[in-house]
Protein 1
Amino acid sequence: IGYNYRMSNLLAALGRAQLSRLDAMIERRRARRLRYRELFSGVPGVTMFGEPSGADGQGCARDNFWLTSVLVDAGTAGFTAEDLRLALAGADIEARPLWKPMHLQPVFAGARTYVDGTSERLFRSGLSLPSGSSLSEDDEDRVFGTIRTFLEGR
């Protein structure tokens, strides 16, 4: 069960070279999250993960903005995370549900679990939006335009 994600020397060298760009990449992702936050700010039933400054109030920890996700309360929003994902997919834009809980993975089907429903709720209501630091301005505008059109149609 599992995978070997050991890093080769070549990949380590590439990663080390990219560290010089890390701050700029994080800033692009942070700016994109703030733009998403603004887009969804007036939408009842939609909340975002992450505090916009990146501070989480836990000492020196800081958000790396690796993933920008929303939670959709379908009863309040009038649509589901899956509805939004399908609208994006219809425009050839990939968005993904939050991670499938480990106890729902086929390999762990018979394993003992200790759950309270939280992971299932997050999986069902969460959607990770396009947020990579290499997303072009044109692509970003297309994503936001598609979401805006979807929200206006609700």
Protein 2
Amino acid sequence: EAVRGFTLGNAYAAGLEGQMGSITPGKLADLVVLSEDIFGIEPAQISDVKGLSTFFGGRLVYASPCAAWGKPDPD
């Protein structure tokens, strides 16, 4: 529910659901790569998930130093 609210919900609130908010052909595709599948872990563990990289406007704007090696960020 939270992921839907932050993706489709925000796009709908801005009147942009036809352009963004879901991974659909023809829509903008800003995204983040996470260290874990947040849908496959316990909700209490989500706060431990690290952002490995961020793409905005089709360009890489952030890459964790550990992302290329497939290792989690050091704490």
Protein 3
Amino acid sequence: MSTSDPPRILSVEDNPDTRLLLEHTLQGEYDVTVVPNVEEALDHLATNSFDLLLLDINLSEKDGGVELLHTIRSREHIDDIPAVAVTAFAMPGDRDDFLQEGFDEYVGKPFTRDRLVDTIEDALPAG
């Protein structure tokens, strides 16, 4: 990847309104792919490379963002991609819980564009 290529982000978000918000918020600065479920996320990860994952915690299927991250971390070629938990869980201690589950960062909903971008930049590998 040349230094002029924007970071590639895969976002897994089941809410259509939030998917549109993420695409609109991040377009231009990042190369963003937004998918609605775990199955599509794993399909994209099998055939594309990404610099960062934005994973919604409460997906409307049996496997949520934490389970998806565990699956990703168990696969050799994708186990080191930084991951940000995106969630409406905003209780004290939640950030630590998500970091213990293997996430690199956490952003609560609702989020501002600046907060989301700052969190992404914190989680992206330097260089």
Protein 4
Amino acid sequence: MIENAAEAFVIFCNLQNFVAVLIGVLIGVLIGAVPGMTTPMGVALALPFTFALHPVTGVLLLLGIYKGGLYGGSISAILLKAPGTPAASCTVLDGYPMARKGEARRALDMALYASCIADFISNLSLILLTGFLASFALSFGPPEFFTLILFSLTIIAGVSGDSLARGIVASCCGLLLATIGLDSIYGTERFTFGNYEMMAGLNFIPVLIGLFALPEIIDQYARRGAGAVVVGALGRVGATLADLRACFKSILRGSVIGVVLGAIPGIGGAPSAFLSYSEARRTSKNPAAFGKGAIEGVAAAEAGNNGVAGATMIPLLALGVPGDVTTAVILGAFMVHGLRPGPVMFMENLPMIYAIFIGILLSSVYLFAIGKLMIRSVSRIADIPHRLLHPCIVVLCLFGAYAVNSSMFDILVMIAMGALGFLMLRLHLPAAPFLIGFILGPLLEDSFRQSLRLSDGTYGIFFHSPICWLFWALTLLSLGLLLRGRFIVRDGDSPAAPASD
């Protein structure tokens, strides 16, 4: 053990590794801050540059981009209501309202603190719990995935705002749009209307950009001269120690949620962020403040988002199974260098794995330093006049939607989603439940149908394992607590109404 650790320090302690992690985190933050420039895209573009590097150096460069990108998405989400990454769409819910109130600096600070703490906890989990969490993730089959996703759908109630009915309507619309394309099991066309470009379904990035960024711009111009909302001053006061102390419990909870969901291949950061946010709102002393600029909401969303960063490496290193799209690209980097992650790698290349662990811990330090330096300059975006800012945002949105597949169809999807998002804004239908339904819908359908095929149509397969029973219990408990919380709020508000008259 000591010999392996000493050899790992020798492998890691050279200037190339330190610079690779630094450059990776910096590039990741910049990529994440641009709407449409996804983290997998940045990692994939950087992959060819790692061919001539030492395996540890190349992997650390890609991991730095991955970790920086997860935080960078919160910058545009808070300042522009244009999430740089899918998982940052949850940060919009309270981050952008804080910016409109002149607290952009405070929101950016809290997003950074939550991201760094969750990232560090996720890294420690990767180092200490790789074997246990990987074996836990390996025990998930289609029935376990179905009950997990069903439990995740209960977070819709937590992000529906004042009206649960509107939240359910919005989520059903998201579920409906998620069915567009080819049926993944039988290959039949659904809602394609004879258009071959729709056979692959609607790409997530154009939907995300159109749903969050464009409606706000359209609404600003539609209300111009009639009391349009103006973003407040930047605010010179950042998040204080008291803010961090108040949000610390939500950050820890979100980090744990991120670690558990990140260790399960295919889940990703967005469900983790929304689940962390929902739990923070449910346990908060002031749940009504969420969605209106609650700093705890920003902390919970970013903790859940960044908590998956190290955890997605757990199934990759322990089993050779990538946890998400980004780690699939990183798996390619390992294989290019003649390495195959998995149990054999732990036996044959343990010092190299320890060297990667050291670099991963260093990335958390770099993330904090780079984030602190960038907040001072990037947060000035909030001071730019809307007549100059909005055209720039539209150009970035067009670029982001087109860059995914170099397809004009994706731009049309983004514009259509912008119109739909504006209609939802005017009808007071929340966007977050729509997005959750769109993300989780295909996973829910596929795991449900695969389970029934495995059991020849017998529904008892959803109750055959302890993990299924666990998630059924959590689903019922979550629904019970959410309904109880809403009834308590309603009962508490009713006596106050006469007193205020």
